[in-house]
């Protein structure tokens, strides 16, 4: 099951039971004093002088939902690595989260939540032979980072993403809040002995989360999140900004980053956030792994439905990147070897089929995820895009 399918299932559940909403992770620092401020740790004596509400999380059942277990394989040369992961709750109420509500700088109420610690179990094998079996807990992760969502999060299994040349094992992990449409996505890494090396939050869920995951470049020398490129000997290149749409490798030495330029402001009278979108600045940037900018374009074919989505045509062996613009009925084509070479292919230049082609004349590439709910099938003859079929949303 891919990330998107898995995440849709999770979002369906939490949206049905949603009882609260929070701003995206990039905006948390901008919330004015009249909004909730999330802090952790024991309450102070001054807190007890105002209204204090104490809550204890309900227990979580083991293996109740599909997202509590996961297994993925990763090819590294001739070797196959496989990680089977599970998360379950200790239901011990051992962690404390404190929410302080204030109006115009004055503390009005405090909500103290006793939350449960969880176990995150990983079995990693190489060609069927054990590499390590390791259990982490929320407390292990909190030693490296606390993004404000770990303590209250529900048990969700880490997802294996790959191994770098220098033996760094990569995982994505979702810290989703119970009864909410919001949380955070982090990646963490271990060495080949199972020692925890790194944990970093790089996206939100339930609003403006990026369409991406931690992943390596083809030769596994570098790895990438939606905000940062990492390489050997502690190398990193931070290219991310708030409201990142996606970031992906297209070769061993090149990746692209897609930005949505949004200005957020808080309207004190309406007591809500307003947004202004920049639709003119070039937002599709191609980078060399050394941080050098190779090319830049304007692309508006992405969409935001709970989180960002980018309709990408994955065509192996052609040396091209294809991005669909469903609204403008066109395909943006870029050379993966020379990103400064590009073209826009209008649908009117392609043959529109009345049904999907079932023969061997063309190579079919499909896109299932589009803003308007359409399913596209594109057909290539050798290295040339020739035709397409579209199934309208039902």
From TrEMBL:
**Superkingdom:** Bacteria
**What name appears for this protein in its UniProt entry?**
Lipoprotein
UniProt source species: Rufibacter tibetensis
């Amino acid at each position: 099951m891919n990330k998107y399918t898995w995440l849709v299932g999770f979002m369906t559940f939490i949206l049905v039971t949603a009882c609260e909403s929070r701003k995206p992770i990039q905006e948390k620092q901008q919330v004015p004093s009249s909004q909730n401020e999330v802090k952790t740790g024991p309450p102070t004596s001054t807190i007890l002088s105002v209204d204090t509400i104490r809550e204890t999380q309900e227990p979580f059942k083991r293996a109740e939902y599909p997202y509590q277990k996961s297994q993925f394989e990763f090819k590294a040369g001739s070797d196959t690595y496989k990680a089977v992961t599970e998360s379950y709750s200790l239901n011990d109420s051992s962690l404390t989260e404190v929410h302080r509500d204030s109006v115009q700088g004055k503390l009005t109420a405090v909500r103290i939540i006793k939350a449960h610690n969880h176990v995150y179990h990983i079995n990693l094998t190489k060609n069927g032979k054990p590499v390590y079996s390791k259990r982490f807990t929320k407390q292990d992760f909190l030693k490296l980072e606390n993004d404000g969502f770990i303590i209250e999060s529900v048990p969700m299994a880490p997802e294996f993403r790959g191994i770098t040349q220098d033996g760094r094992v990569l995982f994505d992990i979702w810290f989703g809040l119970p009864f909410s449409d919001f949380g955070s996505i982090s990646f963490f890494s271990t060495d080949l002995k199972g020692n925890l090396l790194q944990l970093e939050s790089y996206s939100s869920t339930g609003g403006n989360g990026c369409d991406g995951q931690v992943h390596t470049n083809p030769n596994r020398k570098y790895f990438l999140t939606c905000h940062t490129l990492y390489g050997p000997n502690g190398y990193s290149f931070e290219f991310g900004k708030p409201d990142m749409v996606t970031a992906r490798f297209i070769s061993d030495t090149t990746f692209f980053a897609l930005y949505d330029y949004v200005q957020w402001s808080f309207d004190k009278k309406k007591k809500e956030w307003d947004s202004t979108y920049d639709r003119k600045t070039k937002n599709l940037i191609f980078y060399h792994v050394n941080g050098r900018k190779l090319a830049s374009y304007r692309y508006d074919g992405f969409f935001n439905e709970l989180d960002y989505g980018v309709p990408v045509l994955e065509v192996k062996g052609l040396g091209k990147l294809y991005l669909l613009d469903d609204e403008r009925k066109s395909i943006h084509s870029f050379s993966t070897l020379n990103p400064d070479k590009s073209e826009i292919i209008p649908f009117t230049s392609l043959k529109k089929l009345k049904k999907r082609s079932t023969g061997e004349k063309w190579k079919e590439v499909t896109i299932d995820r589009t803003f308007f709910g359409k399913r596209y099938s594109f057909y290539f003859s050798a290295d040339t895009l020739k035709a397409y079929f579209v199934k309208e949303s039902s």
